[in-house]
Amino acid sequence: MDITHNRFNRIAGYTLLELMIAMVVGLFLLGGVMFTYLSMKVTTSDTVEMGELQETGRIALDILGKDLAMAGFFGRLNLDSLTTADTSDLDALGTDCAGGANNGSFPSAAAVTNFRVLYGEEAQSANALGCINDAKAGSDVIQIKRALGTEVSGQALDANQYYVQTTLADARFIEGDGNVIPFELGKGVWPYEHVVYYISEQSYTSGGKNITVPVLMRKRLTTDADGAGNGGMRSESVLEGVENIRFLYGIDQNGNGNVDFYRDASQMTPTDWQQSGPRSIKTVQVSVLVRATEEDNNIQLTNQTYVLGGDNAATQRRLTYTDNYRRMVFVSTFKLNNAGSNQWLIAI
Question: What is the pTM of this model?
Fold first, then answer.
């Protein structure tokens, strides 16, 4: 008998049983690899989406907070009143945000209140403040007026910008024309900003699918709002993904520098907006609801409720959704640096 030949026959290949066992083991290994890959893909997608929501919330609060903190800043002015003569040489605005109980961009003899540097309301429809026609109902609108923090005395003035020139005792508004206003001792020139923030919705097509996204919008005062040289409020898209904003106003009712209570826009009285005398708005609490741009098929949400602002039912806005969009709420409180100081009253 050839022993060598029999030995080689035994090691020449695999039996059918061995191949089947190997295939089954391989399938288990491949399934494990695929499961791990899919899990990592879902986790990575969720992590990226959550990161984008956090970044959107952070940016939104940063944008709103910077304007709120400086509301009512007007350079060197330290006066309780000014006359409409300070705006008499300005051309009339084509569009202005002057509806409801708020004032327009500049002091007006027709106003029955002081020149309000901060004003807010909840949009009841697409129309708000006399200048907005695409607001999202149920979200807040806020108006802020201030001088920007960089003095530009002796520099050429931007033709698309309004300015305010102030001393301790008077002020005047200037329409930029590209020329230089000479530096004058005791006077300072600052860019003047009047902005209105609100929420709207915009639609676009992606991958053959129509997508509607919420957007933080801004109306901004400019000397050329319509492209034809007419001054007014121009609309700007600021940040996608901001679905709702809410403001609570911290009121100091006795002038001791402490916030005594918070009110939402619907609870504010005309006296609360005045920013004069002992009663003033000291802080503003901002609640921002941000939403992903597309629905996430990896989650199933039912009656998810988000709470914006306030520590009781009277000062809360509760929003419930049944779709599969990821959302997050961000809250921050900003101190008004100029609150309680002398504010502008219009002398009539």
Answer: 0.84
What pLDDT does 238 receive? 96
What gap in Å lies between CA 321 and CA 292, rounded to an integer? 13
In angstroms, the CA 160 to CA 175 distance is: 8
Q: Give the range among 30-44, 75-89, 324-338 with minimum mean pLDDT.
A: 75-89
Look up residue 105 and give its two tokens.
């961009």
Question: What is the spatial distance between Cα 238 and Cα 170, in angstroms, rounded to a whole number?
Answer: 34
As a whole number of angstroms, the distance between CA 345 and CA 250 comes to 21
| Dist CA 136 CA 1 (whole Å) | 95
Amino acid code (one letter) for 273: W
307 neighbors 318 (Cβ within 8 angstroms): yes
Distance CA 88, CA 91 (A): 8
SS3 content of the chain, % helix, strand, coil (to 5): 20, 35, 45
288 and 242 Cβ atoms separated by less than 8 Å: yes
Query: How many angstroms separate the CA atoms of 254 and 260, rounded?
Result: 9
What are the C-alpha distances in Å from 236 to residues 116, 132, 158, 225, 275? Answer: 23, 12, 19, 11, 28
CA 333 remoteness from chain centre: 14
- C-alpha 248/C-alpha 272 separation (Å) is 12
Query: Left if phi > 0, otherwise alpha if psi is -120 to 50, otherwise beta: which for 130?
Result: left
Please give the C-alpha separations between residue 46 and each of 199, 275, 291, 300, 325, in angstroms, as whole numbers.
Answer: 26, 45, 13, 13, 12
Q: Which tokens go with 18? A: 């061995």
Q: Does 313 score more than 70 pLDDT?
A: yes
